[in-house]
Amino acid sequence: MKLYSYWRSTTSYRVRIALNLKGLSFETVPVNLVAGDQRSDAFRALNPGQGVPALVLADGTVLAQSMAILDYLDHLVPEPELIPSDPLKRAQVLAAAHVIAMDVHPVNNLKVVNRLKSQFGATADDATAWMRHWMTEGLAAFQALLPQGPRFCFADAPQIADLCLVPQLYNAHRWGVDMTPFSRLLEIEAEALELPAFHAARPENQPDATKG
């Protein structure tokens, strides 16, 4: 498999964690979002959505959208289970995961922030304040959905909610979000990053990582 990825992309980060947890080998193909590689004709032909991640299977099939890729990988390799089979637990875990994947990430996406700057005159400080606002609001909602007791978000092993949370916390730290209210989330993050699958997936450990 080939994973078209950008080192700081939180959606790519989710998929890297899942591939590692499932023990699946993959080749990383860097797509520099800042340089605009995603808008090239070649990449648009691969993924019309012009975003990462894109996962190319051995037969050439291309999968896009991180949540769909995670669902595919969970069916392909059932253990460890990322999405619970029990209907109620499944709904609870997915609801939390979707807070980040559908409420927080889309409004903080690079193309949205760039549009705020180019179309509406937002400054760099304005853009940072925008991102901090939506991350703070979303993380508060996410934390409120979690039960007390499990080592990770909903269980003693990571699931899809954890795979969404940890990359989003990377962005929160990067952009200076006040993490004081989120002690439970920081505990989960610390537990997760001790696991080899999460550690190997960290942005700074990717082949295209830079110091910028």
UniProtKB/TrEMBL annotation:
Coiled coil: none annotated. Keywords: Isomerase. Residues 86-211 form the GST C-terminal domain. Gene3D superfamilies: 1.20.1050.10, Glutaredoxin (3.40.30.10). InterPro entries: Glutathione-S-Trfase_C-like, Glutathione-S-Trfase_C_sf, Glutathione_S-Trfase, Glutathione_S-Trfase_N, GST_Zeta, GST_Zeta_C, GST_Zeta_N, Thioredoxin-like_sf. GO terms for molecular function: maleylacetoacetate isomerase activity. PROSITE patterns: GST_CTER, GST_NTER. Residues 1-81 form the GST N-terminal domain. Its EC number is 5.2.1.2. Belongs to the GST superfamily. Zeta family. This is Maleylacetoacetate isomerase. It comes from Sedimentitalea xiamensis. The lineage of its organism: Bacteria, Pseudomonadati, Pseudomonadota, Alphaproteobacteria, Rhodobacterales.
